[in-house]
Amino acid sequence: MKIIKLLMLSVAILFLIFAQNNLDPYTVSILNNIAIFGILALSYNLINGVAGQFSLEPNGFVAIGAYVTALLILPASSKIDMFALEDPAPIILAMHTSFLPALLMSGIVAAVLAFILSIPVFRVRGDYLAIVTLGFGFIIRIFAMNQTKYTNGAMGLNDIPDNANLLWTGGIIIVTFIVMLNVIYSKYGRAMKAVRDDEDAATAMGINTFWIKTYAFMTSAFFEGVGGGLMASLLTTISPDQFTFLLTFQLLIIIVLGGLGSMSGTLIGAVLVMGGTEWLRFLDQNMDIFGYNTGAHPGLRMVVFSILLIIMMLFARRGIFGNKELTDMFKRGKK
Amino acid sequence: MILELKNITMQFGGITAIDDLNFGVKTGEIYGLIGPNGAGKTTLFNIVTGNYTQTKGTVVFNHEELSGVKPNEIVLRGIARTFQNIRLFKSMSVLENVLIGFHHQANYTYFESILRLPRHFSNEKKIKKEAMILLEKFGIADLADTNSSSLSYGNQRKVEIARALATNPRLLLLDEPAAGMNPSETEDLSNIIKKIKTEFGLTILLIEHDMKFVNQMCDKVLVLDYGEQIFEGKPSDAIVDEKVVAAYLGDFEHA
Amino acid sequence: MLKVKNLEVYYGVIAAVRGINFEINEGEIVSLIGSNGAGKTSTLQALLNSVKKKGEVVFGGYDTKNHKTHALVQKGLALVPEGRRVFINLSVEENLRMGAFNNDENYKHLKDEMYKLFPRIEQKRNQMAGTLSGGEQQMLAIARALMSEPKLLMLDEPSLGLAPKIVGEVFDTIVRLRDEGITILLVEQNAYAALSISDKAYVLENGEIAISGNAKDMIGDDAIRQKYLGG
Amino acid sequence: MKKITTIAASVALIASMSYAKEVKIGVVLPITGPLAAFGQTSNDGLKIAYAQNHTLKNGDTVKLIVLDDRGDKVEAATAVKRLINKNHVTAILGEVASSNSMAMAPVAEKAKTPMLTHASTNPRVTKGKKFVTRACFIDPFQGAIQANYAYDHGYKTAVIVTDAKQDYSVGVSKAFKKAYEKRGGKIVGRVIINSGDKDFNAQVSTIKAKHPGIVDFTGYYPEAALMVRQARAVGVKAPFIGGDGVGFPELIKIGGKAAEGFMYSDHFDEAAATSPVAKAYVKAFHAKYHKATDSMGALAADGYGMILAAMNKCKDPTDKICVNTNLRATKGYQGVTGVININKNGDAVKSGVVRVVKNGKFAYLTTVNP
Amino acid sequence: MDISTFVQQMINGISLGSMYALIAIGYTLVYGVLRLINFAHGDIMMVGAFVAYLAQNAGIPFELAVILAIIAAMVTGILTDKIAYKPLRNAPKISLLITAIGISFFLENLFNVLFGGVPRAFSAPDYLTKIIHYDGIIVPVTVIIIPVVTLILLFIILWILNKTKYGMAIRSLAFDIPTVKLMGINADIIIMLVFAIGSALAAIGGIFYAVSYPSIDPLMGVIVGLKAFAAAVLGGIGSVAGAVIGGFILGFTEIVVVAFMPDLGGYKDAFAFIFLILVLLFKPTGIMGQDLDRSRF
């Protein structure tokens, strides 16, 4: 088993190196997109699928991560140049690190925020939790728009150094995947699933459900923050409008499609949804050839995805993988 | 006395569910709580486990007062419970359900599990072994990898009790353990309960409707009606007690 | 009036009712007794198609197969559910109005009749049903069910959680209703009380009918008494 | 000898015919989404220009690949990547909104592909970029037009309305302030809005309290229309002046009567079109669409024309570096919107117009030279 | 700030609050009955506004267009329930919430595909767009009409809920669906009624919104919807009167805070959520609500 895992890991790494150096930038950008959304969806699935806490906040954490990384890797000179509404705060000008510490910082800031928010968030359950987290995600974006000294407001940040490439995004998605599996297959992961299945019964087993939920929330936020940082460096431009509820919605589709609680499913979901988004581009613009453009249907992709989500909830609520992992299936197969 | 309830009163929005109740459970006893539905038995369980905070009175467990102690901490002090309508972790296997009970006996931190440090492996191995031993005692070791929701009713009940035992309790609260079981399953269960009671040195407090079961199992019973205690004593005395018959067992004379 | 053939109810893989047969004739009180989890409530729900069932249920000549719960109620089946389930956020009178939802023309007249039958709830007609005592709620629940002028009234554990004295009152009422021509199916855990007013009884055990027969005979039978009546 | 030349000529002809290639130009426009009005009008103009001429001097045909970015800057950047790597275009035309062009610029720059934005007026779009050029004037000029026009017509105090979401608006606001104060005008207040807002009660109350002579609205038409409406409803009497972002029919449709008298600086007005190129364009436009011309379409036509002109100067029209060099060196290009010279920053130096809403229609006021 | 501006802002606050209130009632009714946050509710308001717009464009007079819009919104609401919610009545609540989100995105993007994202001008008859000048205060007629209509509708809804058998059925449904069926009541019809009432009110709210801010687009319902939901929670979800009070408070706060503290203008949209979070954390039952599990409406 261990050998197979190592083999898979090395194949994945070799593929990343090959793809980064040999594939055309457009294909690479799609792979990057899949990797980033994969990272975000994997971490989202921990809180939402594994621990069963229906958070709608990932957009907030991704935003935080994106801003922290962007502000850390942007040189002071371009910050002065870019901040149009107000001059940047001194601290913004002073902060500068290289890429890896910036990503780690993104994760840490998001995780610390998750810790602070867990106190109000986990006072409520179920759909109230959903609406409270939705609210926090929204408030974070409003702050990003209004704290112009720190974020340059609604105009966002441009010319972010493009340090990220497929090796970064691919490497981090591998790390995320391994960490998530390690969490799931530990007593903490078991406790998260117990909280999901029946919170009262978990308490009756002596589990401090608040802490278990907070662990899941913080871990999730950490990787969402890192993913946000990668996103900022990859796109080289960020603005509050990129972190609307739409982002959460896309992640939700990925994890529901893959199976709430299944990390392997999430990976496949990310490939299908992000690949599908790119592939379904023709729906939005059947106007590649010049001449007739009346047939453009913006948002048709999103219509397709919304219908897909509804159909899945109605007929295949468990997604592709249910809440099982690929390895669980092998186990069952052997039996 | 391992458990003492003193002057317990519980009110929900003006309605009194339990009214000034006093009783104690001796170490090593099997103590039965009986009474019609809505008499406040499950409420009493929820007070002992910390899920409800009583309006008045104190619960003393092992000479320590339990007021203000959170439900999950009460478990760590040695009180475990099962639920009236079996509440297993449905998405998990039998083994995993039991492992949840061993949560606090696995000694590794969150970071150790993320980094897969040696302590993670050694502890996981240890609790898995113990969990299998426990399952063997209930005769369901072969079901370890089965999903808990696909078990029969009787086996689900066993898993629930095994899971509670995994927390290493001194007092076990069983809420209608024999409900929904046929006579042979019931008998099987009562044997297991007796066995584990001696093996683990447990004290058991149980709620039950099946008088036969209660008769067989309990050293002492308390009959509740409308939150009030109407009888405490041996089960054989309870069935002939007039008040008990009238409130719970049924009125012979009525027509 | 009601014929049940091979009724089965499954919850997932767990069988609650395993192929039972019974019959209720007009003007009878029939009781279904058994311990918790024996399948009594599941049987009642199956009769009303509130749960998925297998088997045949014929009520007043109709096969109930393709009817929804509310349609069966309109056809003359009424159930007083376990735990009474009066609408606690509605007043007593509004509860009665709900009972007569499809019976607008007889509402006023029936309401007066119910108040005559249960004078205690008339005094509280404008109170929220949630403020009534258990016994009063039980009476309201029965009255509410009667508002649809049912042919067959089914009661699920009417004695549940009530003081013995009140249980007596409720059972007296049931007898009175039978005397007025309503057929009754009584589901009870309180076996003695149930048998004492019934004409016919079925003992359910583990989803199957263990014993059936004349209620009076069953009370007299020592063996039954020993095994099922806890005495 | 004659024979030889004929043969040579025919060989050259055959050669050029057999080698008549397709030269691809990628176009990124917000055809849909909140900025769709800009994208669609740009596209309309582009179609006219393309129909007028889509063959290069050497016989190569030009092919346009138009992508919609839904007004989203991430989509815009992705579209450029796609055009360069998948479609192998030689040059890129677009975008309208400065924010989107700024997201596209680094991608084009990195791939050394010439990018010409026909309508993004924020100075930072071309700043420091070697491969990014524009066919329109920049915000400081536009702000100056508004400031000078306002001051010259007796409005000595002003409130500036800035759309904090748009680089364009922020840029014009700054330029207006600078030019207006230089002339001696006084800025008595500044209010901030965000694109997408609908309720401007707070802002119009502030404006009302400041009693300005004129309101300089630097954002786009949807907010302009709602704001002028709400301003009139609370009794703000001062006229509004804005930039090219407000000049769309929706300003009048949504703004209704309140939009009357709304002035704005723009790139083009057919009333000022005197050159043959402009006249031909206006004629073709009217024939095809039966509606008045607009500046976005005219600018897009000019942008396309400039790229073609640059390509024609290269031996190999698909040589990106050559095309870019020639594009940056454009001098005296006779376009629909006037004579265009590209300065060392890659910005166009050209004249502008001032227009006004009059009787429910846009009307020409004056032309302003640089 | 002079007194006339002050009065004017107060009136504006009441008017905005009324629109929130109208939409909040729908949230409260659906939540009360199904315990579902109907994410699509804000989009139903958008559907209402769009249908009114399209009908007017087709030459139908405003009044008739409004009626058509209300009908269209009701049909949309009922269909939403039939297709997306009814099959999930016994499913976990989270599944329902996900479908609700799906429906919301579906409606937004469908309208985006059909009509594009460009804001469209919504026209209304003169008697609605008139502006009254009174003693230095300038009052658009709408700010008077909207609260009055809202209050009238509130009384109609309360009358239906409290005095008619259908209203009683709605109230009972909120408490216990299976028992309602035991009364011989077709619970699905009653739930349909709830969606119909909620959607009709949303359509009216949407039209008012479109008259007040005469540009409509497919995303117009998103923020307004979320704010109305916040208003419903603020007032005590499950309480119709609470929804109205919550709506007024929210509308008022937004206008007044921004008017007195223009610096906070950018945070305007966050107020709703801040209220929401505070209420859920400290008084989960809201202003008018009682214990969530005991009593409704």
In terms of topology, how is this protein built?
The complex is a heteropentamer of chains A (335), B (255), C (231), D (370) and E (297).
Chain B: E1 3-12, E2 15-25, E3 30-34, H1 41-48, E4 56-61, E5 64-65, H2 71-77, E6 79-81, H3 94-101, H4 110-115, H5 118-137, H6 153-166, E7 171-175, H7 183-200, E8 203-207, H8 211-217, E9 220-225, E10 228-233, H9 235-238, H10 242-249
Parallel strand pairs in B: 3-8, 3-9, 6-7, 7-8
Antiparallel strand pairs in B: 1-2, 1-4, 4-5, 9-10
Helix pairs in contact in B: 3-6
Chain C: E1 2-11, E2 14-24, E3 29-33, H1 40-47, E4 54-59, E5 62-63, H2 69-74, E6 77-80, H3 92-99, H4 107-117, H5 119-122, H6 134-146, E7 152-156, H7 164-179, E8 183-188, H8 191-197, E9 200-205, E10 208-214, H9 215-220, H10 222-228
Chain D: H1 2-18, E1 22-29, H2 36-52, E2 61-68, H3 73-85, E3 91-94, H4 98-110, E4 115-117, E5 132-134, H5 139-152, E6 157-163, H6 167-183, E7 186-193, H7 201-210, E8 214-217, H8 221-233, E9 240-242, H9 249-255, E10 263-266, H10 276-289, H11 295-312, H12 320-328, E11 333-335, E12 338-342, E13 348-349, E14 352-358, E15 361-368
Parallel strand pairs in D: 1-2, 1-3, 3-4, 4-5, 6-7, 6-8, 8-9, 9-10
Antiparallel strand pairs in D: 10-14, 11-12, 12-13, 14-15
Helix pairs in contact in D: 2-10, 2-11, 3-4, 5-6, 8-9, 11-12
Description:
The complex is a heteropentamer of chains A (335), B (255), C (231), D (370) and E (297). Chain A is mainly alpha-helical and 335 residues long. Chain A contains 17 helices and no strands. In chain A, helix 2 runs parallel beside helix 9 and helix 3 crosses helix 12. The longest helix of chain A has 27 residues. Chain B has 255 residues and is of the alpha/beta class. The longest helix of chain B has 20 residues. Chain E is globular. The C terminus of chain E is likely disordered. Chain E starts with a helix and ends in a 15-residue tail after the last helix. Chain E has a single domain, classed as ABC transporter involved in vitamin B12 uptake, BtuC (Orthogonal Bundle), CATH 1.10.3470. Chains in contact: A-B, A-D, A-E, B-C, C-E, D-E. Chains A and E meet through helix 7, helix 13 and helix 16 of A and helix 4, helix 10 and helix 12 of E.
Spatial gap, N to C terminus of chain D: 54 Å
Radius of gyration of chain E: 19 Å
Mean pLDDT across every amino acid position of chain D: 88
Portion of residues within helices of chain E:
over 70%
CATH topology of the largest domain in chain D: Rossmann fold
Q: What is the string of SSEs of chain D from the N terminus onward?
A: HEHEHEHEEHEHEHEHEHEHHHEEEEE
